[in-house]
Amino acid sequence: MDHAPKFRIGELGYRVGVRPELLRAWERRYGLLRPARSERGFRLYSEADEWRVRLMQQQLHSGLSAAEAAREVAAMERERNPSEDSLETPVELAHALGTALEGFEEEGAHAVLDRLLGIHGLERAIRDALMPYLRELGERWARGELSVAQEHFASRLLEGRLLALARGWNKGPGRRAIIACPSGEQHTLPLVCFGLVLRNHGWRNVYLGGDSPVNTLHMAADTVDADVVVLSAVSSERFLSVAKELGALARRRPLALAGAGATPELARDLEVECLDGDPVSGAEALARRFAKLAPMSSDFR
Ligand code: B12
Q: What pTM does this model have?
């Protein structure tokens, strides 16, 4: 529907066969018309206004009062062209996702994920719904309010869905990242989220997943000539236990640590980079940093 301001009130009245006084009354009482102002201060109406007036006339002919007819028109417009206000927020969708996942409702969970990604896009979905949901899932699991079965079902379904989105994320001409979790670490979900956002910044990912021995990473990095290796872990112990290997890797390739286990102090001690924040801001920061370098140069220290 065209919202561009086009007609003065007389022309609109002529097109729809309604007196200008009545149009003004509908505008004043029910907000049926939403004119813009011309440079000289005249009200200008759009085709969307014309469409609303025509619907109003139909509703009046079917016997509704003017107030009821105007409400019907507003409802039809919302249905046809949902505004931001009438859509579910990330918080509401995270709640709906939790309800479906914790009830082992696979189809329901995918339907919520469809809405979440469709309405809010990948980055908001990750930052404002998936990360908060996972945090809450962990807290409820730790308090004994959720079973291990529910937590496993939820994380496996999310992992499957995110990895389905990841298909083809190693194609194209962009820079390359090796992304992995070190030995003993299975919390891959935020890393996959990170990779998806990084791909949106034009990068390619080689994803090794959880439990990846650090001493094999340089082989992968050399094979694909990676621009950076990103490792994430929930606990610092996973990094500290392979400090020597991390040092050796960092001498060959730019290396960044991330996740709750990657504190700035630890990264300083190990002389590697630390990606602060959530997976979305981490990917943005990395992409920004490399964008400042010469095209496809691999040194970001
Ligand atoms: C899903 C989940 C699992 C799944 C993981 C599935 C998968 N493929 O990822 C499974 C079932 C495998 C699992 C297993 C375990 N889990 Co678990 N798990 C979780 C849960 C619910 C979500 C994990 C997650 O994705 N977090 C992501 C976000 C929400 O949290 P975050 O770590 O704070 O990360 C933030 C930042 O650090 C950053 N970030 C994180 N990663 C990355 C990566 C990059 C690249 C970037 C840039 C940023 C970034 O972004 C986040 C948002 O700001 C958490 C709860 C929690 N609070 O995290 C528990 C949790 C992490 N698990 C926990 C535990 C104890 C375990 C087990 C030991 C349980 C057991 N007894 O078997 C095992 C250990 C497995 C292993 N060896 O790694 C504890 C960890 C406690 C600790 N600090 O050590 C937690 C915190 C639950 C709790 N409340 O106690 N788990």
A: 0.79
